[in-house]
């Protein structure tokens, strides 16, 4: 089998920027790899996700329970694996993914009670990795940013791009809960947390990249 490295994080953590920086650096080194981003909004497999995020099943994230919503995202990943990257990965290829099963662990687990959360975490990985037979990541990098900073960054992004927030991003309380759940998931699954803020301010993009690059190279150099 190959290697699967996943980027996950709170909204506004700079995940996409860091993902791009890493891929650019690996290409400059002559590394062979492929990338993927979930959800696959341009593919038919994401139709239920688009309906969900567009509010067609309800305008509140809680209108669709954690288990139902998780299946929307899991099907999208299943289609991608079977149609696009299964053979490459099984032949030893390196896959870098912006979001994965990890996003269900962050966003959907926040809908269940704290007492039920560990059971949901177990159900989720059994569902996607055992029942659906999707590959398990070799490394999950979780970019963490305090929710107060996340709100500021999202508003700035909306102003710059002249876009609105989806039904999740409209609720800071929900994002605060997602951050808490994400940190719980990281502890439960053994993800690697990269703290993107220090003393109430974001670390530099270069500093965060340096930490991420070292983590990734350690995995890629493993026998």
Give a structural overview.
With 223 residues, the chain is of the alpha/beta class. The protein has one domain: P-loop containing nucleotide triphosphate hydrolases (Rossmann fold), CATH 3.40.50. 53% of the residues lie in helices and 13% in strands. It is built from eight helices and seven strands. Strands 2-3-1-4-5 form a five-stranded parallel sheet, with helices on both faces. The relative contact order is 0.20. The mean pLDDT is 91.
Topology readout:
Elements: E1 3-9, H1 15-28, E2 34-37, H2 47-53, H3 66-90, E3 94-98, H4 101-108, H5 117-131, E4 139-144, H6 147-161, H7 172-189, E5 192-195, E6 197-198, E7 201-202, H8 205-220
Parallel strand pairs: 1-3, 1-4, 2-3, 4-5
Antiparallel strand pairs: 6-7
Key descriptive features of the protein:
about 220 residues; Rossmann fold; five-stranded parallel sheet; two-stranded antiparallel sheet; 8 helices
Q: Output the helix-strand order.
A: EHEHHEHHEHHEEEH
- The CATH topology name reads Rossmann fold
CATH architecture name: 3-Layer(aba) Sandwich
Q: Helical residue percent?
A: 40-55%
State the major sheet: 5 strands, parallel
- The global form is globular
For the residues shown, what is the average pLDDT? 91
The count of domains is 1
